[in-house]
Amino acid sequence: MSELIQLPSYKEQSPEVSARFEALHKRPVKLKVEGLSKTFHTSKGSVNVLKSIDLNVYRREFVSVIGPSGCGKSTLIRMLAGLETLSGGRFLLNDKEVSGPSADRGMVFQGYTLFPWLSVKKNVMFGLEVNGRSGTAVEQEALQWIELVGLARFADAYPSQLSGGMKQRVAIARALATQPEVLFMDEPFGALDPHTRSQMQAYLLQIWKNVDVTIMFVTHDLDEAIYLSDRILVLKANPGEIHEFIEVPVPRPRTPEQFLSPEFLSVKQHLEELIHPVSSNDDEPTDLPIVRMTSASDNVE
Ligand SMILES: Nc1ncnc2c1ncn2[C@@H]1O[C@H](COP(=O)(O)OP(=O)(O)O)[C@@H](O)[C@H]1O
Ligand SMILES: [Mg+2]
């Protein structure tokens, strides 16, 4: 495909895209990460998973995190969400150093984490009640978040009555209900079928547009990362370090038609080269050995 289409460099941006990034860099820094590192100590020894991670994420920015499996993507956002201790470095939210989990940061995981014995409404109310609130105001607020994710008709349904995509929308509503400043999402659509997944991506962009929230989104799907993000943080493995932090040159608002635009394809090609460099497949032969298992005479090629 790349032989047929002459792609621009992924760094090439239209004037409207560069103007958007210029504006984005003028927003307040929401999350500042300085020299973050993580070492796990296990019975088999110590593993240095992440090393010297430095980055800034701006207010209402949408950042995706990609990288080879096991490079520390989940560890990174779990640390930032306060679910994992740091081995070194620190991070600041609105210029203030933070540690441990709190309502200013929310999390959505890949697995369905709703309480099966609670209705949709009660699941969303749960997050608010944990923060010590109660009463009809909480119920009204929960209903607003449920409406935002398009599930008003299902407020009294139970998780078992919902599809996978609907469950994840409830999980998003529950995470947003406490009005976190940063929402961390760890492969939230990874278990969904392709059609539901692209629908969820479009929903997420709509939700993000209507809520004052900064999103850090882990995925291993390059199309998903490009379609959703302002910038993409590319990690490399052993130890996990920042490979590149790239600006997505695709204009907003995003539409599925852009998946085939030259900007989209050029950034995708660049990400593929970063994540799956040709040399990493050296131990795999290009062709399989010829072992003929059929005596049928029709050639299929
Ligand atoms: N609690 C833990 N104890 C020991 N090693 C861990 C723990 N959590 C993750 N790791 C290791 O850290 C590395 C990064 O894991 P993870 O952050 O889950 O990667 P990714 O999300 O990029 O696939 C892996 O090698 C994993 O085995
Ligand atoms: Mg992971």
Order of helices and strands: HEEEHEEEHHHEHEHEEH
Cα shape: globular
How many E-type strands?
A: 10
User: CA-to-CA gap between the ends?
Assistant: 21 Å
Identify the bound ligands: adenosine-5'-diphosphate, magnesium ion
Could you describe the 3D structure shown?
The chain is of the alpha/beta class and 301 residues long. The chain has eight helices and ten strands. It has a six-stranded mixed beta sheet with strand order 6-7-8-3-9-10, sandwiched between helices. A hairpin with a 2-residue loop joins strand 1 (29-42) and strand 2. The radius of gyration is 22 Å and the shape is globular. The protein starts with 14 loop residues before the first helix and ends in a 26-residue tail after the last helix. It binds adenosine-5'-diphosphate (ADP) and magnesium ion. Adenosine-5'-diphosphate binds at residues 40, 42, 47, 49, 67, 69-75.
